[in-house]
Fold this sequence. Notes:
Elements: E1 48-54, E2 57-63, H1 69-76, E3 95-98, E4 101-104, E5 117-119, H2 132-139, H3 149-159, H4 168-174, H5 185-198
Parallel strand pairs: 1-5
Antiparallel strand pairs: 1-2, 3-4, 3-5
Amino acid sequence: MPGLSPPPNVRPGQSEPDLATKSPGAGESGNPAPAADTAPASAMYLSMKIKVTVNGTSHELRLDPRTTLLDCLREHLNLTGTKKGCDHGQCGACTVHVNGRRVNACLVLAATLDGDEVTTVEDLARDGELHPVQAAFLEHDAYQCGYCTAGQIMSAAALLSEPCGPEDADVKECMSGNICRCGAYQNIVAAVQQVRRGRT
């Protein structure tokens, strides 16, 4: 419109479209200004080397220190039996054993396990025979969709070596960190109790 001045960054005689042909910060020659540092954010973090035994096999791994045990197992070792559910330690789907004790793999940083032993659901069966807990889960139909089953079984296997009262209510309390969204709790408790009574 008459009487309007060009934008302050447009020289007289230069149209606005001409600006698109020059990079921001370019000199008069049109050469682009030096590019900003475009290194990925992950490059800001140093990797860590750890040695961990998983299912009886020793692994030397170099990991981002923020890597959880869950992601280490699934993404680096291709052990996908351990499931990612809530990723906040609330559902128990990612339960594994570290040095014989059950933990939520999503809450453990892999870098803290240097020299430790990890057992996943893939290693429960021995010589082609199911672990007693696995066999009991099959017998009692203690699963439906199956997504939580690996975590349930790992918790139940650990429970066999933990102090727990004899009643169903005691088992429910000891297994309370494992959620079954399908509601197969009655059958899960029955499976666990069968194994416990068979060991007495």
